[in-house]
Each structure stands twice: as structure tokens, then as C-alpha cells.
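[Discussion] Sanity-checking designs against the backbone

I'm trying to build intuition for which residues belong where. Below is a C-alpha cell string of 475 positions. I'd appreciate it if someone posts a full sequence so I can compare it with mine line by line.
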């Protein structure tokens, strides 16, 4: 049911013969799914050379023809979604229904970029002198090196692949070694749709080795990275040495503000379901819950009830609503958050422990009475642990919500249009959902501020990230 893991360089699928490799582990069982080959230095050089040739070919391909190929890739992704979803669930752990939604959304992202690539308009700026034509053009930036994490094996890669290809760029993508199968299947869809050899290349290896080989190359003109803040800073530094364009989608610690005028139980139902999506392993997951005093007890009670109702298990089992964490590191991290909270007077309303005797399962957890300087309130948990604390006033909660270095996503619930506008303006974040969690769609920009990164994926901004602006004055 799993997939055969290979590299894809210059239109060829390359297996592990003569290459270093590592096992890919099923987080629900702790057992190996397969062996993943690592790209050698020669493989990486071949990928760079292939991408350089591929860019020359792809740039010369019309946006109209590029769009046809991308739409075919989206169709193939939909046709194969069941198999790809199962592959992804096996390697990442999330429930099958979540994997299916991710894969189908990935197809929508390709379609969006296919169409938007045909609308990469320039403009004419009126000249100051008679007979002067001033033209602003959008041109593809060149060869792109992209790096993606393990929590969304198809969706995060597809944002980069579809955006780059729609703009006319070629791409070398290094997907996560822990969840490679989803990206392997995704790249197959593009290859089978007719993307020419060299235009899209897929490699794996020791992350630092691959990034430090690709990014300094004169061939690479842009990088796109999704992952942790420390790694993002390192890669941004490598890019800066070559004055290379970069998109950085880094970590977050998303505040949720629930005001007294909003039904606390309705808010809890909405945000709890979003919190435990992918076991909380989502960069825009709601992670710090501030509830105004009047509705605080009802919110905590309903949120806790929801958490207790989740069914832990293998993501391929129909009754499962919460899968395992992706790797043992997350288990250790969850215990660290819980232990710190307990030491600081935090109260465990539900959960707080590992679950079962195989796989990487952790109970959905709710913690109250934690101080603002506790670990769970200051560091991104990236797991199924939810701290809930009360607040009194608007100004107080804004100060607390904005107190960290993160600025990726935030959420608020209120029935007042005045408060909705005020909190939307006051929160320091790249994305804010007010009475909504729909902040990530193909047609809207996705990205953070402060230490959560810079640049956007999705929307017209996601296409422009792969374009250079050229001005021509013609007399």
C-alpha cells in the first residue's frame, strides 16, 4: 500500500543502489515502511544542471501551455487521491479523512496557480514625453530550491511546486525524509502530466548537507522554506550571501481570543476541532487560548468535553479521529510542556500522558491555570496540548497576545463588529481569523510576520514570489 521511494532528477527516477539510505517509520506502529535513498553530491549537482536546462525550456513555454500541464497534474492528483492519502497517513499519522482533504486541497492549489499563471499581467505606465512607452513586465526568477517539513507531505510541497511552475521557474525540492511518500506521489502526477525533464526535481538527504549544497550554487536564484525559526534563519543567511530571493514560512504560536459577547460553547466547538487537527502539528494551529472571564468556565468545560471525545488510533482505521504524533521527538516535547505546566501550578483538565504501548500517541490535553511565562504559553507546542487562561480587558489581551516573537496566525471570536475590526487591527500577525478559521485557501496569501517569517504563499502574492519585476522604457 505504501510507495516505492526514489529520487527524481532530470526526468529519471533513481533508486537506492549505491546511495546512502534511511528507514521511513510508520508513527502508528513504530515499524519501517520502506527505505529512502539520499542524494549524493553528484546527484545534487546533476539536479542543479538539470534545473538550469529545464528553466530555459520552461521559461520559453507559454503560460497557456504551462497551465494545461498543471491542470492535468491536478486531475491526476484527484484520480489518485485515495492511494496518496493512504500513503500519507501511513508515514505521517494523521487520520485518513484529514489526509484525503489535504490531497484534494493540493489539487485545488495546482488549479489556482495554473489559472493565475495565465494572469501574470504587466502594465503600461504613461510616459512623460511623447513617443515614450514605459512597460512593467513580470519574469520568472529562475531556478528555485525548496525545502518542506513533515507535517503536510503533499500540501506544503505543492504550494511551492505549483507556484514556481506557474511562474515559469524550474525547481529542486527537498521534501521531508520522515514523510517522503506523499511528495514522491505528488511529483509523479506532475511528471505524468507532461512537465519536461529537469523542470521539477525531487531530492532527499541530510537536510543541512542538501541545503548547504544547493543554496550557495550560482544556479539557484530563489529559495522557499517551511519549517522552524532556527533553521529558517540559517537558510535565510545562506540566501543573503548570494542576494537570493527567499520566502520563509516559519513557526507560530497562535493566540485565540474569545470575548464575552460570543457564545463560549460555540467558540469551543469551532476552535477545538481546529486545534486537534493533525494532532496539533500545524503551524497555524490555535495554541494559546485567552477567554474573557464571563464565558471562561463554559468554554473550558466544552473544550475539555471535545478533547475527551476524540478517538486515538491508527489513521487508517475508520473510527480514528486523532492519529499519532509524527515522531518520538514530539512525544518528548509534549511531556516537557506538561511537566513544566504542572510545576508552575497548571491543572490538567484531561490528557497529559502518552497513550498505548506502540507508536507515538499522546492524549489530547487541556491545561488551565498556567502563567504567561510558562513553556506552553511561550514556545510553539506543535502537538495536542491546549492551554486555556482567562483575561479581563481588550487592552490586556492584546498585550498578552502580541507579547511573543511569533506572528503567523491568530483567531478571535466576537459578535461586535466594532470589536472585530479592533482586534483584527490590533493583533500582530500575518493572518487573523475573526469568527472563522478559514485562513488558508489557494486564493489567499499565507505567511507570517516578525520571527514567523516573510513572504507569502497562495493568492497572487504566492505567484509574485517567483517573479522578477522588469521595467522597460522604450523611446
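Best answer:
Here's mine. Compare freely.
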Amino acid at each position: 500500500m505504501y510507495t516505492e521511494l526514489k529520487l527524481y532528477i532530470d526526468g529519471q527516477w533513481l533508486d537506492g543502489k549505491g546511495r546512502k539510505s534511511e528507514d521511513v517509520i510508520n508513527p502508528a506502529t513504530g515499524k519501517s515502511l520502506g527505505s529512502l535513498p539520499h542524494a549524493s553530491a553528484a546527484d545534487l549537482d546533476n539536479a542543479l544542471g538539470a534545473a538550469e536546462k529545464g528553466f530555459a525550456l520552461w521559461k520559453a513555454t507559454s503560460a497557456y501551455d504551462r497551465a494545461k500541464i498543471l491542470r492535468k497534474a491536478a486531475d491526476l492528483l484527484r484520480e489518485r487521491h485515495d492511494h496518496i492519502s493512504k500513503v500519507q497517513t501511513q508515514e505521517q499519522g494523521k487520520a485518513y479523512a484529514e489526509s484525503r482533504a489535504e490531497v484534494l486541497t493540493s489539487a485545488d492549489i495546482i488549479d489556482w496557480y495554473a489559472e493565475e499563471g495565465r494572469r501574470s499581467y504587466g502594465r503600461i505606465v504613461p510616459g512623460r514625453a511623447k513617443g515614450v512607452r514605459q512597460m512593467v513586465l513580470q519574469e520568472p526568477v529562475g531556478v528555485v530550491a525548496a525545502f518542506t517539513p513533515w507535517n503536510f507531505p503533499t500540501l506544503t510541497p505543492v504550494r511551492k511546486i505549483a507556484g514556481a511552475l506557474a511562474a515559469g521557474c524550474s525547481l529542486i525540492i527537498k521534501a521531508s525524509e520522515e514523510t517522503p511518500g506523499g511528495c514522491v506521489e505528488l511529483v509523479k502526477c506532475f511528471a505524468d502530466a507532461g512537465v519536461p525533464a529537469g523542470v521539477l526535481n525531487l531530492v532527499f538527504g541530510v537536510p543541512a548537507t542538501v541545503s548547504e549544497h544547493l543554496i550557495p550554487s550560482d544556479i539557484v536564484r530563489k529559495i522557499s522554506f517551511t519549517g522552524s525559526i532556527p533553521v529558517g534563519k540559517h537558510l535565510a543567511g545562506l540566501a543573503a550571501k548570494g542576494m537570493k530571493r527567499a520566502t520563509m514560512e516559519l513557526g507560530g504560536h497562535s493566540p485565540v481570543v474569545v470575548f464575552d459577547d460570543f457564545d463560549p460553547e460555540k467558540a469551543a466547538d469551532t476552535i477545538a476541532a481546529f486545534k486537534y487537527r493533525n494532532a496539533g502539528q500545524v503551524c497555524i494551529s490555535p495554541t494559546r487560548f485567552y477567554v474573557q472571564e464571563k464565558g471562561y468556565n463554559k468554554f473550558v468545560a466544552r473544550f475539555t468535553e471535545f478533547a475527551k471525545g476524540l478517538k486515538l488510533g491508527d489513521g487508517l482505521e475508520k473510527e480514528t479521529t486523532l492519529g499519532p504524533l509524527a515522531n518520538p521527538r514530539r512525544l518528548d516535547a509534549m511531556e516537557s510542556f506538561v511537566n513544566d505546566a504542572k510545576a508552575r501550578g497548571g491543572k490538567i483538565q484531561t490528557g497529559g500522558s502518552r497513550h498505548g504501548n506502540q507508536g507515538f500517541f499522546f492524549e489530547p490535553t487541556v491545561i488551565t491555570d498556567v502563567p504567561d511565562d510558562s513553556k506552553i504559553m511561550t514556545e510553539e507546542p506543535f502537538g495536542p496540548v491546549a492551554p486555556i487562561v482567562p483575561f479581563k480587558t481588550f487592552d490586556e489581551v492584546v498585550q498578552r497576545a502580541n507579547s511573543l516573537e511569533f506572528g503567523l496566525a491568530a483567531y478571535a471570536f466576537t459578535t461586535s463588529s466594532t470589536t472585530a475590526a479592533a482586534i483584527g487591527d490590533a493583533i500582530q500577525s500575518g493572518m487573523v481569523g475573526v469568527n472563522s478559521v478559514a485562513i488558508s485557501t489557494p486564493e489567499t496569501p499565507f505567511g507570517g510576520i516578525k520571527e514567523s517569517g516573510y513572504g507569502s504563499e497562495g493568492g497572487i502574492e504566492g505567484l509574485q514570489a517567483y517573479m522578477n519585476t522588469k521595467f522597460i522604457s522604450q523611446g
